[in-house]
Amino acid sequence: MNFLYQIAVRFYLLAARISALFNEKARHFIRGQQTVFPYLEDKLDHQRPIIWVHCASLGEFEQGRPLIEQIKKDHPAYQILLTFFSPSGYEIRKNYDQADYICYLPIDTTRNARRFIQLVRPKKVFFIKYEFWFNYINLLHEKQVPLFLVSAIFRNEQLFFKSGFRAKWYRQVLKKVTHFFVQTEASGQLLSSIGMNNYTVTGDTRFDRVAEIASNSKQLPLIEEFKNQQRLIVVGSSWAPDEALLIDFLKQDRQTKVIFAPHEVKESNIRRLIDQLPVEAVRYSQAEGKNLRQAQVLIVDTIGILSSIYRYADLAYIGGGFGVGIHNTLEAAIYNIPVIFGPNHLRFQEAVNLKEVGAAFSVNDSVELVPMLNNLLEDEKLRAKITEKCRYFMEQNLGATQQVLEEVFNIL
User: Can you list the alpha helix ranges (DSSP code H) found in 75-101?
Assistant: First the structure.
């Protein structure tokens, strides 16, 4: 099985190199792979010990970020090396100022893992949520470097919990993790079912991150002017299927304000949305001097302000639920407002939990969405009840970061 794994990793790298000929994301990945070792050889300074934090992509970074920033605050003797596997994480956060070093993770060959760990010489390692790289984990275990999996979540259908040779091999990888900090009790029970009790249920560190974001949210005068004390729906990280549902709503409602913040802000996508809307829309980048109080739709054609826009919403619709999966629901829920999303949300524990407590709702089409929006917008008592449910839920889930670090530095 080890041999097959090594072959599969090399085939992945070959496929990435071929894709790089015509795919920009693959080109970033290959270039990043080529620059890792020269970067580390040039930049690493071992006068202070290094903690290595690995995040597959941007979503995992949002879970790892509170961990990094708390380490920098409470344990300044350590340096932080932050690695990404995906270009969508590295390219956006390569200038993050709380990490001492930032690079791609070299693909998981035996040679790369050995060279990387010999260069970095980490004292502690944190992998965020889903990362299970055999050669890295094997070598860290061999060198007795503690490895912690943070904000981990497991499901019964994962290979670790199946029968057969492949499942047994993958379980051996898990057994080399020093300690698991899992999001749910169910995840812990799954680990126990295969004889692994080295876990703590701490929840998701993203709750701490969104709470911090909310406490530092920016005032946005253009959004305030647009809202004008009227009801406002914020459609965050939307894709075309999500927008189609809200367009059906706008055809029936000419009073409620709607802000679209598309997941892709490239010009062709913004133009497509504008052309499909039943009312005239104002673009955020061109809003200065426009009569925003009279406008019904605002399109955010820039990045970096969505989390602050949610503070003005009466309710939020989160995009992605008709594609690969919904985007960040917690950024909106931290403001204690009702949250709505599409059907593809079951892999996102926070969304499932928000639904369970009655603070979030899923829809399959506009036939379900339109009456739901009308009900939520018109019934202030209902929204007040949801606000309380949401506030309690968010408060109950804060503190994972501190719990993880207390155990890592004081107990384990």
Answer: 87-93
The C-alpha angle with vertex 266 and arms to 265 and 269, in degrees rounded to 5, equals 85
- Is 92 found in the same domain as 33? yes
From 154, 211, 239, select the one nearest 334 (Cα to Cα): 211
Residue 310 tokens, joined: 């949610």
Give CA separation, 67 vs 97, 209, 242, in Å.
14, 9, 33
Helical H segments across 87-193, by residue range? 87-93, 110-120, 134-142, 165-174, 185-193
| Sheet of 297-299, strands arranged across | 281-283, 297-299, 257-262, 232-238, 315-318, 339-341, 360-362
Is the pTM higher than 0.85?
Answer: yes
325 and 313, same structural domain?
A: yes
Distance CA 194, CA 175 (A): 10
What does R_g of the chain's alpha carbons equal in angstroms?
Answer: 23
Residue 90 lies in a domain: yes
The CATH code of the domain that includes 195 is: 3.40.50.11720
- The backbone torsions φ and ψ at residue 9, rounded to the nearest 5 degrees and listed phi first, read -60, -45
Distance CA 345, CA 273 (A): 24
Residue at 211 is within a domain: no
DSSP label of 286: G
The residue among 30, 33, 82, 92 whose CA lies nearest residue 58 is 92
Tell the burial category of 22 from Cβ atoms under 10 Å away from its Cβ (0-12, 13-18, 19+). Answer: exposed
How far apart CA 366 and CA 372 sit, in angstroms, is 9
Structural domain span for residue 388: 218-396
Q: What is d(CA 200, CA 181) in angstroms, rounded to the nearest whole number?
A: 5
**Looking at the structure, do residues 353 and 300 belong to the same domain, yes or no?**
yes
Q: In whole angstroms, give the CA distance from residue 342 to residue 317.
A: 9
pLDDT in tens, 134-190: 999 999 999 999 999 999 999 999 889 988 888 888 899 899 999 999 999 999 999
Residue type, position 339, single letter = V
Note the pLDDT tens digit of each residue in 63-112.
Answer: 999 999 999 999 999 999 999 999 989 998 999 999 999 999 999 999 99
As given in the structure block, the two tokens for residue 354 are: 């928000």
Residues 277 and 350 in one domain: yes
* Residue 68 shares a structural domain with residue 123: yes
